[in-house]
Design a protein that fits this description.
heterodimer; A: about 350 residues; alpha/beta; Rossmann fold; five-stranded parallel beta sheet; four-stranded parallel beta sheet; 11 strands; about 35% helix; globular; B: about 325 residues; alpha+beta; 60s Ribosomal Protein L30, Chain: A; Phosphoribosyl-aminoimidazole Synthetase, Chain A, domain 2; 2 domains; seven-stranded mixed beta sheet; 8 helices; about 30% helix; about 25% strand
Chain lengths: ~350, ~325
């Protein structure tokens, strides 16, 4: 298939792996921040091809995985309200809260609907004006502009029963938090490709400027990731930490100002609670005050008890890259994709699910 | 109303040469000509949504699916029964279309529908139409094909491209409608299996329906206590199916098929069995995808296109299109 097969060529992959082998004269530790990168790395068997002194560790870039227990508790409380429908993306319904997941809440009678797009949630609201439809909006910069555009559409159409529960997160703040985690000892980042189509490269500059670490925005095919790994090693060896774009066919330095404009019209930065990591200042998105009428947290009276994370689950350390999933005592035993205990096992893009599914046990 | 439905719609549509589909409560059939063989029985209920999809509908699916379940035991499918649960308000014209395609599928597979039942339920108590088919067939004396028969040294053959049915259905599902020319591969496999059995030894057979090829291979490995190694570059996937899977973030290895089988065949017989498969219209694109090894027992490994190796696991839950 054109535009795919070229990036999966085995002969070129061997050339890149040989190149990495030649320059990797010491151990290097890179983090792929994005869950789609984690899956691509496992699925294509890249870890198996790289020399032993290169470690790629998975980061917190799976939107489902980093949704806090408290936010799931809020969503479950909303779903249980009379006259309210809670709509969200498929994976989110399986994420465990303190007491129940949304799936369990649904089985207990709450109205939870799975949608493929925020526009579908808006359609749901338009089709039944007697009920409030709350869209649980999770995701990074890749998807948040589409949610903002949906809200714009709702306002234009005068829809009054469409609300957002925004648990959106932004990536660069989390990367700073990781660099501030000394036990991690990262040499650089494989920066997320799709997020970067929106935000461009400027938000990553602090990685090179302040922390003197390498950063390469990578595509998602095997050759993209191998080439990005080689570029990261070369940045370090040549003593020129910077932000480079490997994924030129999709990403530009300036990103997508139109999408950022739509996002900025309705949302502003807020502190956000990341599952297992805690509150990272300025790493979330909340609705601006003038759109409070569409903000589920301000419109609805949401009451939840004290939220608590599952005991024994080390999702937090996995998301920070400090521990690998198989180091968790629940991994593959109490916690499997069938019966996930932690959020990293729920999403297809979660580190634990990828380790489990593709056999790095 | 019900009597009219049966007499005017069901009976004329399904009645073939068999005189038994009528007012008696049971079909009474003779198996005298199969003495020495063993009876194979199976049942399956079909609830596909949407009911009509590119390349087929719930009717031919219900016939082919049960014919194929019998075929995977090496049985020659003979008789089917059909039970219908129809939601009030379901268009009679659609029902007629479904019955017509059931009759055509039964004729194509050379089986007879010998008994049936219909219930109409209130609007909202069913999703359009559900169909159950049960099937009976005869396994010839001396033939023993199960999913537990894989032996180290076998090669694995798949009878054609994977993922066509699942993506055809998905392409028409509400909320995900996309333009494509992907068609379901729904087809009876009994003719193909008969050709294979005539050509050489078969150690195991299974049709990779729900859960796709990956799930079948994992079941093979765990039930037979052997390892399986497949080669990613040898997996046959049609371009539009690959494209749709790429866009939606799905893996064709886990997407359902309704007219394909995987066979484990002793290496010595592989060439003749493969040649026989390719001569049959439903097996034209048959190809070898991997081999059976002793270790690691119970696991399926895949050599990836770029030369790495990874595990292939069972699908848990339904594959969902990704968030980003």
């Amino acid at each position: 298939m054109k535009h795919v097969d070229e990036y999966r060529d085995s002969a070129l992959a061997r050339v890149l792996v040989d190149g990495i082998r030649q320059v990797a004269d010491r151990p290097f530790k890179f983090m792929e921040v994005c869950g789609s990168h984690t899956v691509a790395i496992f699925k294509s068997g890249i870890r198996d091809l790289l020399p032993r002194n290169i470690s790629l560790i998975s980061g917190p870039g799976c939107p489902v995985c980093v949704t806090s227990v408290e936010d799931i508790d809020k969503a479950a409380a909303i779903a249980g309200m009379d006259g309210v429908v809670l709509a969200t993306f498929g994976d989110m319904v399986r994420v465990p809260g303190s007491r129940v997941s949304l799936q369990k809440a649904k089985a207990d009678g709450a109205d939870v609907r799975v949608v493929y797009s925020p526009f579908d949630a808006l359609k749901l609201a338009q089709s039944d004006p007697s009920r409030k439809v709350v869209f649980l909006a999770a995701g990074f910069e890749t998807t948040s502009p589409a949610v903002a555009a949906t809200l714009g559409r709702a306002i234009e159409a005068g829809v009054k029963n469409f609300l957002l529960l925004s648990v959106h997160k932004t990536i660069p703040g989390a990367m700073r938090a990781l660099l501030d985690t000394p036990e991690l000892g990262l040499d650089g980042f494989i920066c997320p490709g799709h997020v970067s189509t929106i935000i461009g490269t400027a938000p990553y500059r602090f990685i090179a400027d302040e922390y003197r670490r390498a950063a390469v925005v990578s595509g998602f095919e095997p050759l993209d990731i191998l080439q990005s790994t080689l570029m990261l090693i070369e940045q370090i060896r040549e003593g020129r930490p910077s932000v480079e774009i490997q994924y030129r066919r999709a990403v530009s330095e300036e990103g997508n100002p139109v999408a950022r404009g739509v996002l900025g019209r309705y949302f502003e930065a807020s502190d956000a609670n990341w599952r297992g990591i805690g509150v990272i200042p300025g790493s979330g998105l909340k609705l601006k005050t003038e759109y409070a009428a569409y903000d589920a947290e301000r419109v609805l009276d949401i009451k939840i008890g004290e939220s608590r994370e599952t005991r024994g689950c080390i999702c937090g350390m996995v998301l920070k890259g400090i521990k690998n999933p198989p180091e968790c005592r629940l991994f593959g035993k109490a916690c499997t994709p069938e019966t996930p205990v932690g959020a990293c096992m729920v999403s297809f893009e979660g580190s634990c699910a990828a380790y489990y599914k593709y056999g790095a046990r | 109303m019900m009597r009219e439905l049966i007499e005017e719609l069901f009976l004329p549509a399904l009645k073939g040469e068999c005189a038994c589909l009528g007012s008696d409560d049971s079909a009474v059939l003779s198996l005298a000509e199969f003495s020495g063989g063993r009876l194979a029985l199976t049942t399956d209920t079909y609830v596909v949504s949407p009911v009509f999809f590119p390349g087929g509908n719930i009717g031919d699916l219900a016939v082919n699916g049960t014919v194929n379940d019998l075929s995977m035991a090496g049985a020659r499918p003979l008789y089917l029964t059909a039970g219908f649960v129809v939601e009030e308000g379901f268009p009679v014209a659609d029902l007629a279309k479904i019955l017509d395609s059931m009759k055509k599928a039964a004729d194509r597979a050379d089986v007879m529908i010998v008994a049936g039942d219909t219930k109409v339920v209130e609007h909202g108590k069913a999703d359009g139409i559900f169909i159950n088919t049960a099937g009976a067939g005869m396994v010839p004396a001396g033939l023993d094909i199960t999913a537990r028969g894989l032996k180290p040294g076998d090669v694995l053959i798949v009878s054609g491209t994977i993922g066509d049915h699942g993506m055809a259905v998905l392409s028409k599902r509400e909320g995900l409608d996309f333009e494509s020319d992907i068609k379901s591969d729904s087809a009876p496999l009994n003719g193909l299996v008969a050709d294979m059995i005539a050509a050489g030894d078969i150690n195991a057979l299974r049709d990779p329906t729900r859960g796709g090829l990956a799930s079948t291979l994992v079941e093979f490995a765990s039930e037979s206590g052997v390892g399986i190694v497949i080669d990613e570059s040898s997996l046959p996937v049609r371009e539009p199916v690959r494209g749709a899977c790429e866009i939606l973030g799905l893996d064709p290895l886990y997407v359902a098929n309704e007219g394909k089988l995987v066979a484990s065949v002793p290496r010595a017989a592989a060439k003749t069995v493969l040649a026989a498969m390719r001569k049959n219209a439903v097996g034209r694109e048959s190809t070898i995808i991997g081999e059976v090894v002793a270790e690691p027992a119970g696991k399926v490994l895949m050599k990836t296109i770029i030369g790495g190796t990874r595990l292939v696991d069972m699908l848990s839950g339904e594959q969902l299109p990704r968030i980003c």
